[in-house]
Amino acid sequence: DAGITQSPRHKVTETGTPVTLRCHQTENHRYMYWYRQDPGHGLRLIHYSYGVKDTDKGEVSDGYSVSRSKTEDFLLTLESATSSQTSVYFCAISESPLDGRTGNTIYFGEGSWLTVV
Amino acid sequence: AQSVTQPDIHITVSEGASLELRCNYSYGATPYLFWYVQSPGQGLQLLLKYFSGDTLVQGIKGFEAEFKRSQSSFNLRKPSVHWSDAAEYFCAVGAVSSARQLTFGSGTQLTVLP
User: Out of B32, B101, B106, whose CB is closest to A100?
Assistant: First the structure.
């Protein structure tokens, strides 16, 4: 299994409070991703990083920000949590972009369950 | 942009029976295709992937999938299902133009009857 640790694994928070989820990897992979998983939607990309201090938005980035100050850590922040952000959040890593020449792929952490009440 | 459809939300099979989970994709060029499995409360585990070459791909746990370009499909199969295969299965597509991300289907929940 890829060395990916997400924290916290479970969190309940109140509407309007800030929340930060942490993803830590021990694989020294360049690319890191945050996805959210909701019933009927599969996984949707929130933000991703292609290097230290290099990040970009995914398809559902509104209300989220990210930071990557070290290769091994990728933080996802909800500045002011809303009930619509109740979800399961997955961190993922990959050594390089998806590339048929190298066959690299994406590996996932075990998820963080966030409930906003 | 690419998209993935998994037409079956929930499938129930008996242990020992064969299994086929459907996946259809939309993308203008040759896609990169993946199947992941998720057990309750767990992350996603890669079952198999197709990048190029042989259209029949073997994966872990006895699963295989066949890429059919003419049908835009990448169906997952297993000849004999075990109770431990009960989980949710996700098909995903990646493309060169969006090389940094995958697009997932909405998943198929598999129940295995004893």
Answer: B32
If one counts the domains in chain B, the total is 1
Cα atoms found within 13 Å of the Cα of residue B4, Cβ hemisphere only: 30
Cα end-to-end distance, chain A, whole Å: 33
Query: Which of A31, A56, A105 is the closest to B46 by Cβ?
Result: A105
Fold of the domain built from segment(s) A4-116: Immunoglobulin-like (2.60.40)
pLDDT (tens digit per residue) in A44-85: 999 999 899 999 998 899 999 999 999 999 999 999 999 999
Q: For residue B90, which residues of chain A lie inside 8 Å, CB to CB?
A: 42-43
What residues make up the domain containing B33? 3-113
B-interface mutation test, from A25, A87, A105, most B Cβ less than 10 A away: A105
pLDDT tens-digit map of B39-77: 988 888 999 998 878 899 999 999 999 999 999 999 999
Distance CA A27, CA A56 (A): 21
Tell me the CATH number at B30.
2.60.40.10
A81: closest CA among A55, A117, A47?
A: A117
